[in-house]
């Protein structure tokens, strides 16, 4: 998932309108629309709020309520890559808590933090379904089982991020 | 020669994609006649990536295989584990729901049919609606998501409801730590879920289905979407299901990282595009569900078990099990264990046999301290309770629950006060906020446990009282069941709640 910055306001308006109309025929279309917007922009841009409300006949408060309810939806750009580390019980049973603390310290980040160059954001996640090969993490959509520092670094490298969390090209 | 390399996401998390690529390159370099099949996992996760080579009519397993092992593997220099079916962990199982998982190419409808797929749907098409429901009732199938409600009764309520549109909603929002059965079957045998939903649609008179799953499961989402396209193309889904003249179609919807959406009424709100807050019941979703219409909400495993019930008959299924817990349960063995994975077996095996024998004890080699069964809302069981047979009523009698049948094993380094605190913290993070006992109770729970940690023993009765309020006053299982792990930790491991004070003195 590499968020693209909108080239100009006109393109954004058009893209937003396109995403909304592509999902308008669905029953309960709001979440699919928000996912598609986030896939396109890396977050749900404020410019999309008014057209969403108009298309779905909901108030700004209702939309805000939905956006703030779900952990996934972001209102501003986060890192170009996202590292999710599992905090749930199965991972804890094999030292996941200490491993997460160690990796956060190595990256110099706290939960929800982003590296200074904007390459990587770290988020907690509660279960990736990797409970029989815990601890687990996910870099973008690549899963890592039996998580340790070298396995994480390999996964980060594959998306062009150094072990420090900085982008290779940066 | 056929070479099977799983595309299950746990196998991929352990390097299966790299192994498959290395095999492809090596096969090409050597000019071998070999077809590489990406199957689901057989469920023995400690052996992943588990490669199977089918040659001269014999399919042998090798694992775990790394990229570097591939040349030796193709040279025949790696010792085979034998046939999967003969390996003890597998041979001791009764695979009904997961019979095809790992065996077949998940996205080959032809492979699916060769292994018994669609036989159940074909039989259901020839049956009147009430006979379909009776078959499910006779099988004794109960909701595999955790609540254990009889599936046939739920279906009958929807069948009898009068409405212009009814829905089948599959709850694939598998957020419980220690569980992965839903993910595994969606990635390993997606057509069985599609077939089960189609049978539910025919039985209840619903023409539209949704699979609501997690954004944390991108692989399962992709496989399910592809399988639905294939099924639609082959006429299994659509306006005329297998030439029956009856319609059923379905789509996948993806949640957005909210655990509470695994609760059926939250899920329905989320599916409608609202905040995933819990709805008060009644009205039951079976009468007023998705968009206010009659809706079956069933867990993945419940629906994925329906085809085998129809293919082999309800009595065949009901002959397995214990008491009112009929059939089989895919038990997910996770956490600090030697042999982690999915073990499908008839209800009735004791917890101790599962932990010490099947799972082989802890991976760390240290003594087992506690086992959490049923996810973050399930109780911690003490080894003293290991003779409890795996069944709904039997676990209820231990103030525990089997939930979605995930078991997470902890060794003696676990601090149960920390685990109790985590349960409250998790509830506070994931509470939908609708009811006070859950929204406020979870926050106060964390604070109260912190007081106990600091040596304030007077906070223990307060925690007990708070837990009672949460159990009695919460709208759904999140607030209502969070006290299970908290109180079981306090009850069975009191030393972890007092030693802090003694250490301070």
UniProtKB/TrEMBL annotation, chain A:
Alphabetized GO MF terms: 2 iron, 2 sulfur cluster binding; metal ion binding; oxidoreductase activity
Cofactor binding description: Binds 1 [2Fe-2S] cluster.
Keyword entries, A-Z: 2Fe-2S, Iron, Iron-sulfur, Metal-binding
Classification via InterPro entries: NADP_DH_HndA-like, NuoE-like, NuoE_N, Thioredoxin-like_sf
Residues that, per the record, bind [2Fe-2S] cluster: 86, 91, 127, 131
One Pfam family cited in the UniProt record for this chain: 2Fe-2S_thioredx
Source organism superkingdom: Bacteria
Membership in a protein family: Belongs to the complex I 24 kDa subunit family.
Record-linked NCBIfam families: PRK05988.1
Protein name: Formate dehydrogenase gamma subunit
Species per Swiss-Prot/TrEMBL record: Celeribacter neptunius
UniProtKB/TrEMBL annotation, chain B:
Molecular function terms, GO-annotated: 4 iron, 4 sulfur cluster binding; FMN binding; metal ion binding; NADH dehydrogenase (ubiquinone) activity
Source organism, top-level taxon: Bacteria
CC cofactor: FMN; [4Fe-4S] cluster
Membrane spanning stretches: none
Ranges where the NADH-ubiquinone oxidoreductase 51kDa subunit iron-sulphur binding domain occurs: 417-462
Sorted UniProt keywords: 4Fe-4S, Iron, Iron-sulfur, Metal-binding
Family per record: Belongs to the complex I 51 kDa subunit family.
Name used for this protein in its record: Formate dehydrogenase iron-sulfur subunit
Species, as recorded: Celeribacter neptunius
């Amino acid at each position: 998932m590499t968020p693209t910055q909108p080239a100009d306001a006109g393109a954004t308006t058009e893209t937003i309108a396109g995403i909304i109309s592509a999902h308008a025929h669905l029953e309960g279309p709001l979440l699919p629309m928000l996912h598609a917007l986030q896939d396109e922009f890396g977050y749900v841009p404020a410019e999309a709020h008014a057209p969403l409300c108009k298309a779905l006949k909901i108030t700004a408060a209702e939309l805000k309520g939905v956006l703030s309810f779900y952990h996934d939806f972001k209102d501003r750009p986060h890192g170009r890559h996202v590292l999710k580390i599992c905090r749930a019980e199965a991972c804890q049973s094999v030292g996941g808590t200490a491993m997460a603390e160690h990796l956060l310290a190595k990256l110099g980040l706290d939960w929800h933090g982003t590296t200074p160059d904007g390459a990587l954001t770290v988020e907690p996640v509660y279960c990736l379904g990797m409970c029989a090969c815990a601890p687990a993490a996910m870099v973008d959509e690549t899963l890592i089982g039996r998580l340790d520092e070298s396995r994480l670094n390999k996964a980060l490298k594959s998306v062009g991020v150094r072990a420090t969390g900085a982008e290779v090209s940066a | 020669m056929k070479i099977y390399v799983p595309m299950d996401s746990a196998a991929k998390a352990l390097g299966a994609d790299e192994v498959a690529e290395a095999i492809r390159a090596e096969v090409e370099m050597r000019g071998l006649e070999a077809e590489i099949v990406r199957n689901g996992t057989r469920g023995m996760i400690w052996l992943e990536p588990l490669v199977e080579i089918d040659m001269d009519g014999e399919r042998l397993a090798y694992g775990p295989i790394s990229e570097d092992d591939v040349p030796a593997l193709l040279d025949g220099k790696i010792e085979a584990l034998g046939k999967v079916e003969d390996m003890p962990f597998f041979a001791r199982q009764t695979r009904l729901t997961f019979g095809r998982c790992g065996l077949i190419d998940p996205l080959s409808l032809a492979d699916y049919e060769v292994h018994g797929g669609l036989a159940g749907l074909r039989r259901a098409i020839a049956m009147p609606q009430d006979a379909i429901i009776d078959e499910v009732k006779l099988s004794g199938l109960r909701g595999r998501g955790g609540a254990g409600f009889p599936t046939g009764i739920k279906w009958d309520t929807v069948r009898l409801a009068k409405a212009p549109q009814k829905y089948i909603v599959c709850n694939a929002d598998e957020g419980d730590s220690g569980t992965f059965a839903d993910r595994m079957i969606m990635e390993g045998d997606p057509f069985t879920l599609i077939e089960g939903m189609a049978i539910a649609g025919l039985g209840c008179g619903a023409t539209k289905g949704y699979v609501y799953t997690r954004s944390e499961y991108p692989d399962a989402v992709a496989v399910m979407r592809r399988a639905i396209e294939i099924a639609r193309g082959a006429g299994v889904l659509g306006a005329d299901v297998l030439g029956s003249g009856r319609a059923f179609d379905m789509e996948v919807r993806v949640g957005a990282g909210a655990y509470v959406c695994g609760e059926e009424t939250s899920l329905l709100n989320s599916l409608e595009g609202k905040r995933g807050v819990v709805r008060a019941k009644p009205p039951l979703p079976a009468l007023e569900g998705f968009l206010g219409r009659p809706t079956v909400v069933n867990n993945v495993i419940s629906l994925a078990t329906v085809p085998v019930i129809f293919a082999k008959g309800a009595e065949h299924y009901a002959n397995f099990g214990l008491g009112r817990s009929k059939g089989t349960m895919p038990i997910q063995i996770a956490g600090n264990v030697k042999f982690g994975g999915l073990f499908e077996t008839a209800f009735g095996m004791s917890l101790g046999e599962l932990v010490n024998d099947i799972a082989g004890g802890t991976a760390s080699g240290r003594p087992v301290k506690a086992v959490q069964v049923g996810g973050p809302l399930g109780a911690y069981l003490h080894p003293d309770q290991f003779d409890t047979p795996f069944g709904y009523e039997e676990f209820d009698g231990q103030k525990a629950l089997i939930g979605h049948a995930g078991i997470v094993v902890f060794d003696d380094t676990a601090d149960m006060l920390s685990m109790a605190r985590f349960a409250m913290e998790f509830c506070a993070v994931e509470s939908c906020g609708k009811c006070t006992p859950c929204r406020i109770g979870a926050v106060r729970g964390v604070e109260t446990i912190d007081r106990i940690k600091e040596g304030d023993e007077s906070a223990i009765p307060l925690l007990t009282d708070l837990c009672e309020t949460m159990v009695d006053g919460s709208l759904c299982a999140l607030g209502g069941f969070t006290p299970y792990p908290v109180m079981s930790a306090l009850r069975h491991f009191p030393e972890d709640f007092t030693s802090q004070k003694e250490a301070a003195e």
